[in-house]
Amino acid sequence: MPGKFWKPKEVKLLRELWESGEHDFSVLTQKIERSEGAIKEKLRRMGVLVVVQKPQKKHTTTSVSLSEDLLTHEEALKVLAGALEHLRSSGQDKLELQRLRILVDAVHTYDSVLEKFERWTEIESRLLEMDKKIAELQKAKTSNAG
Question: How would you label 128-144 residue by residue, b for 16+ Cβ within 10 Å and e otherwise?
Answer without folding.
Answer: eeeeeeeeeeeeeeeee
